[in-house]
Amino acid sequence: MTLQRDPVARSSTPARTGYRNLVREDRVHRTLYTDPEVFATEMVNVFGGRSWVYLAHESQLPEPNSFLSVRMGLRPVIVTRDRKSALHVVFNRCSHRAATLCREESGVAKSFQCPYHGWTFRNTGELVGTPWPQGYGEDFDRAEHGLHKLAKVESYRGFIFGTLNGAAPSVVDWLGPAAAWLDYWIDRAPEGEVIVRSAAHRMGYRGNWKLAYDNAGDGYHPAFSHRSLLEMASRMGDSKDMSYFGVSPDEGPMRTYLLGNGHSVIDQRPNYDGPGSFWANQRPQPGREKFEEQIRANHGDDADRLLDLCVGSQINLSIFPNLLVIGNQIQVVEPLAVDRTQLTWHATAIGGVPDAVNTMRMRTQEDFPAFGEPDDQANFEEVQRGLAAPEAEWILMNRGLGVDGWQEVGPDGVVSSTATDELHMRRYYAAWLQLMTEEAM
Hints:
Elements: H1 14-17, E1 27-29, H2 31-34, H3 36-49, E2 53-57, E3 66-72, E4 75-81, E5 87-91, E6 106-108, E7 111-113, E8 120-122, E9 127-129, E10 152-156, E11 159-163, H4 171-175, H5 178-187, E12 194-205, H6 209-216, H7 222-225, H8 227-236, E13 255-260, E14 263-267, H9 277-280, H10 288-299, H11 303-309, E15 315-319, E16 323-326, E17 329-337, E18 340-350, H12 355-365, H13 367-371, H14 373-386, E19 394-396, E20 408-409, E21 415-418, H15 423-436
Antiparallel strand pairs: 1-19, 2-11, 3-4, 3-6, 4-5, 7-8, 8-9, 10-11, 12-18, 13-14, 13-21, 14-15, 15-16, 16-17, 17-18, 20-21
């Protein structure tokens, strides 16, 4: 490929050129993945300063006064329940000298005492104690020195989101059509109860956080990136799981749907043919045959439904900027630096099913993070290495652009296309650009 040098973007920083020069209809500039200045602005604007960010699931806060320490971009925050179980989110930063206040990942606490100088705060953020208070004088007002709080905290069916933007629309409005896909994922559980398991699967890679979000809506890569996984599965048995990505995926029935505000979903369900087919096409696992035999013997006509609940939902739902619902798992994208990211996979159980179903569900959720995710993260790191070449300036996202017959508009106004169309990237970058510029909500 001949390098086409761009006099606007070349050797420029976003502060000089403006982000609009770096996001084109069919490509984005490499500096959006490599420039610390871009990353710093993202951590303010994209990750909570102007829009909603996923923080936690309510099942991770199972009782009054529960707490969970997480990050909102780079901001350390504590998600808490008060004594009446109402939700709060406060900065995990003592308002005295900025020390990390809570140094445990989770637990139950009515208050937090800073290990540095002993300032004490309620789990709702109010300052309630300062050692030797006479040292602060009569004008010291505790009410002015509580923990910083998010402007808005809302939960959608157990998914907790937060924002610093007091003018942000409701979470339901922001989710838009994506809410219906979350509903589908949740309502697979007979009682609508999803429970995040206590232990998470954490993996880090040396690359920009957007590489994971690019990939989540990419139906072009599985046949190549995950070839070893697919070949292993075919050697072990008659598995069709994910094989449809490798056989003319643009001519098959699965579609990518654009859901607004940078959200999208790949719907793989049309590749399956009725009750029991999710289970029947799952990759082989130890003990699978004996388990199925027991479920069919004990549950008769309900067996296919229960077996399907053991395996994934067959959707890849991306909620911009950091929530991915893949299979039966909740994956959180956690930026650490411009070239360093952590991905956290949370396995889920569901209520209203026999214990054996949740046990097998856990086994199937060990599959892709162990055998497929390392493929993806290896690619993310190799992309980041490739981005070190400053003369090759652009990342293409032009697949499907201008191809007749690929994109359709449904009766609900939702745009869809084939699974390999890079429309997912083009549309989420439009949302990204809005948040990074003065036109943000």
